[in-house]
Design goal:
- By secondary structure, this protein is α/β, with parallel strands linked by helices.
- It has a domain of 264 residues: TIM Barrel, CATH 3.20.20.140.
- The protein is 40% helix and 13% strand.
- Helix 3 packs parallel to helix 5 and helix 6 packs parallel to helix 7.
- The structure holds zinc ion.
- Zinc ion binds next to loops.
Length: 383
């Protein structure tokens, strides 16, 4: 009897917690620049994005670096948000040509000193508690126009060799797209020899087949899932087969949002729900009619969602209508999400889709599912 009571109380106070393991805060979209244009569509709104994420319990984020410069720059953000933000350090397969090559076939003369620089960033970041993973490193054969296969395999291997030169163990943040056989061929010897401890890494943004999933699980890796991993019915079938104790979630924002045209979309329900609990505030209730008439909201959350072109118009409106008794409505909740730009608060949608794909419907089981995914990430990156 007493046990039952405790159990119920625990359940009532439970709230979802999320760890978004893939956030590209270095992307120009977070500074207001889109599609390579030099016209700023809106001011940098990273602070508002973080507030939105906090409102829905995105407690930790791993910011992904793709170049040596980004790996270094992320220290600042990690310092400002210690115990919430961590970064990876590494060179993405799509960036290896620019970072390490003089031309298609020739490595830069200073390639060794660049790798040395990356090693130092890893060491220092690890010591400071900022860098929690080595990556993004790996192979991407879907985008060979950035780096050739040869450049990618060469630099994947050279970066993995850094692991033999450092005297601490750091988990891997791996990128693998349409390159599973080469990927396994290159990384397996490091796992077999113990240079990479078993299970000490995640293959993020997974979009492969069931057969490929099995090959990665055989190496012990975790699998990171985002909106891009859930586009087609085939994707959903594969995602439903990932063991929960190997599952992690991410937005890969500003990319990889779940879109209306995706197979996953049918599984998302409107706010509030168990994945996005109701925010208790009289302010919000009082102004809900105002909210409906003035702001076009995100289809599933309570934030306005606008086209980037309308940012100024929206800001002007908020400025005109600010008042003390609508602090929240015209505070955190008034700052808009940008249509087609993904952000960390949306990671709960990935959790909801995965939960349903795994056939989990009971409240208690959903709680365990969400907690397990959160703890997988904490176990890998924060232990
Ligand atoms: Zn990636």
């Amino acid at each position: 009897m007493a046990f039952k009571l405790i159990k119920r109380q625990m359940s009532q106070s439970w709230k979802p917690r999320y760890y978004d393991i893939g956030v590209n805060f270095s992307d120009a979209m977070f500074q207001g620049y889109y599609n390579g244009s030099s016209t700023k569509k809106h001011p940098c709104d990273i602070e508002e994005i973080i507030k939105r994420a906090h409102l829905f319990n995105v407690e930790k984020m791993l910011i992904t670096a793709s170049t040596i410069k980004e790996s270094k720059e992320h220290f600042k953000l990690c310092k400002n948000y210690s115990n919430q933000f961590y970064s990876t350090a590494g060179v993405h397969p799509c960036s290896v040509a620019e970072e390490f090559y003089e031309n298609e076939f020739t490595l830069r003369k200073d390639v060794d000193s660049k790798l040395e620089e990356l090693t130092e960033i890893l060491k220092e970041g690890y010591k400071l508690n900022h860098i929690k993973a080595f990556g993004e490193i790996g192979l991407d054969y879907d985008r060979l126009h950035y780096s050739t296969k040869d450049q990618q395999t060469t630099m994947f291997q050279k970066q993995l060799d850094i692991l033999t030169k450092i005297d601490f163990k750091i988990p891997l943040f791996l990128h693998m797209r349409a390159a599973c056989d080469d990927f396994v061929k290159i990384i397996k010897p490091y796992v077999d020899s113990g240079v990479i401890p078993r299970g000490f890494g995640v293959v993020h943004s997974f979009t492969g087949t069931e057969d490929e999933l099995q090959k990665l699980l055989d190496l012990g890796f975790y699998i990171g899932i985002n909106g891009c991993s859930l586009k087609t019915e085939d994707n959903l079938t594969v995602a439903s087969k990932i063991p929960v104790d190997k599952l992690m979630i991410e937005t890969d924002s500003p990319w990889c949002e779940i879109r209306k045209s995706h197979a996953s979309y049918q599984y998302i329900t409107p706010y509030p729900n168990i994945f996005y609990p109701k925010i208790e505030s009289s302010t919000i209730d009082q102004t809900s009619s105002l909210e409906k008439s003035t702001f076009k909201l995100d289809d599933h959350l309570l934030f306005p969602s606008i086209k980037k072109e309308h940012y100024q118009k929206h800001s002007d409106y908020v400025e005109r209508n600010k008042s003390e008794d609508s602090e929240l409505r015209f505070g955190i909740l008034s700052s808009p999400m940008i249509k087609s730009r993904n952000e960390p608060v949306e990671v709960g949608k990935v959790a909801e889709v995965l939960c349903k794909l795994h056939g989990i419907t009971e409240q208690k089981d959903i709680e365990i599912f969400i907690d397990t995914i959160y703890n997988n990430s904490v176990k890998l990156f924060n232990n």
